[in-house]
Structure formats: structure tokens, C-alpha cells
Give the backbone structure.
Amino acid sequence: HDQNKVIEIKTSSMPAGISEEKAIYFDEKIVLRKDDIMILFTDGVSEMANEQGEIFGRKRIYQIIEMHSILTIEEILDKIKDALKAFQNQQKQSDDISIILAKIH
């Protein structure tokens, strides 16, 4: 693992929460090591738009994690929430925002 580097895990399975009768899911395994951080988030986080119509994007989320990886999970989550709030400014929230963040001990 590269220290302070986010690695996006690509999958060929249907996203979680998408309901299709014939959806096929695959098991995928990754090795997590001490101090690795795992984040799962809904598209309401990465696709949040500001007043100019620009989206927040996954890259900003990853940069926050890389910059603050030594902090606690609570502090990293606060950094993400603060960045989302500042980015959104007065723009109305149009989608759900859910984030799961975990650090391996």
C-alpha cells in the first residue's frame, strides 16, 4: 500500500441499493492493513452540486482523506462534512448523503 494514497476499487457488480430481479453480484476480496481507511458513500455525496452547477466529485473526497489520514475517523468525517457544506453553500440539497468511514486498527 502507498501511504496516504486513495485506491478506488472498481467492481463489475450492480451498485448496492439498486433493485433488479436478475441482478448478479460477485464476491471481491481486498486486503486491508493497519491504519488503512475505507470509505463508502452514496452518489449524493460525490454528485453534490454548488450554485454554479459544479459537482463535488470523488477526487475532492479522496484528497480530504489523503490530507487528513492521521486524524481519527470522526475528525476525517467532520472534514468531509465541512467541505461539503462549504461547497454546497446556499444550494439546496437534492439527494441523500450517506457516508460510511472505517479505519483498520
